[in-house]
Structure formats: C-alpha cells, structure tokens
Amino acid sequence: MTLRSDGEQTANSKQQTAGRRRLRVHSGRDHASFRFLLFAVCCLLFTAACRRDMQDQPKMKPFRSSTFFRDGLSTRQPIEGTVARGFLNQDTEFFTGKKAGRPAASASAPVQTPAGPQPSGTSVAPALQGAAAYPDDVEVFPIAVTDKVVTRGKERYEIFCSACHGLTGNGDGMIVRRGFRRAASFNDDRLRQAPVGHFFDAITNGWGAMPSYAPQIPTEDRWAITAYIRALQLSQQTEQKEPAAASTTGTPATGGGHR
Asked: Which CATH architecture has domain 138-239?
C-alpha cells in the first residue's frame, strides 16, 4: 500500500509540473500578443499625427504674392513659345478664316457702312465688292459641307445669331424689333458676294456692334454657321426672284383701247 501511494504521489507531482509548464507557455504567448498589439496601437497613433490633408498641403495659389520668387508672383510665366495643348492651330485657313501666308489683319480693311437708310445729302464713296473687299479671307470652305454640317449650323445659328439677324437673315431679329440697332442683312448684295472667310472672321473677332463669339462657339460650329448662312442666302435669293417673275407676267397691259 505504501509503494502504491508513493506512485500516485509521483504521478500527481508530474501532472502538476506539466500543468505549470503549460501555464507558463500560455502566459508567455499572451504577453507576446499583448506587447505586439500595444506596439501596433502606438504606430497607428504616431502615423495619424503625421497625416496631412489636401487643403493643408504646401502650395502656391494663383495670383497670390510669394516671397520665394524674385518677382513676388506665385504664378510662373510660361516659357517663350509655349503653346497650350490643343491650341497649336497650324491650319491657318481653318482656325482663322484667312488665307495661308496672309496677315491676320489687313491694313486696307474695308470701311463698314452703317446699317439702315443713309441721309440723302451725304455721298458715300464706292466701296469694293465681293472678294475684292476682303482679300485676306478664304473663299472656299476648309471643311466638307454636308447635310449634317448645315443642320448643325442651323441649330447654332438659331441659338446665337437669330436674335439679331433674324431667322431668315434679314437683320430683323427680336432684339432689333425691340429697339436695338439693326443688324446686317445677309441678303444684301454686299454680303452675298462676300467670301465665306468674312463670316467666320466676324463670328470669331466680332464686327461693328457685334461682339466676338469665339468663347461660346467652337471653330467647327463657326464654319457650320457660315455654311448655313450661305444656305439662307441661296434660299432667300430664290424666293425674291420668283415673286418678281410672277409680277412681270401677271400684270395686265395698260393703254391702247383700255379705258
């Protein structure tokens, strides 16, 4: 009985020793996990303190003064000869309506005749007509004039041009009817004979009381409007000839035996 109890005591002591070892291993792992977690939390706190928002980043705002540059300006001037992307405009005829190799503005620009009737006591010197009045403007469209282009021109014309020039191009738009200065009529012989580049130039740079529409109308749409103006001129010219022909054939003869 004594040997048996001693064996039991030995077994119990071994079990207790193994249990203590397991407890030490688990507690060591727990301490290691806790230290790692504490280190990660500290790293997150330190990195959060180094965060910089976009609105707080060091930068220079346009048109504000700066002590960094000698001229005191934060905005730097572009290098001489710099061209913005998409604004190279190598095709002179397409982008300006002027003939290639000719200056953009002619020294002998035609004198603009005021719109409306002129006083009978004044004498106006004869002006050049047709392409001779605008020697620098192109006479041929630099784009292919298709139905799609003319339709697009009609849409843009009614938005930007009809208020002054009217839907038929007679210069009797709504604001003219309300008392504004009368706009030029596209159906006058002077403008019927003008080259297409003249209309493009007028839309781009303005003409008389008309301001420049270049910021509102892209280059392609300016040519589309010019194509539609040509279509208006042809339609109005045809309509004006037909009543004249009808009046000559339908008027009864006077004189003779008629009383």
From this structure: Orthogonal Bundle (1.10)
CB 208 within 8 A of CB 180: no
pLDDT 10s digits, 190-241: 999 999 999 999 999 999 889 999 999 999 999 999 999 999 999 987 666 6
Q: How far apart are CA 167 and CA 183, in angstroms?
A: 12
pLDDT tens, residue by residue, 114-136: 444 444 344 444 566 677 888 89
- State both tokens at 225: 């409007």
* Alpha carbons 166 and 158: distance in angstroms, whole number: 8
Residue ranges per structural domain of the chain: 138-239
Tell me phi and psi for residue 50, to 5 degrees.
-90, 5
From residue 28, alpha-carbon distances to 25, 106, 170 in Å are 5, 93, 97
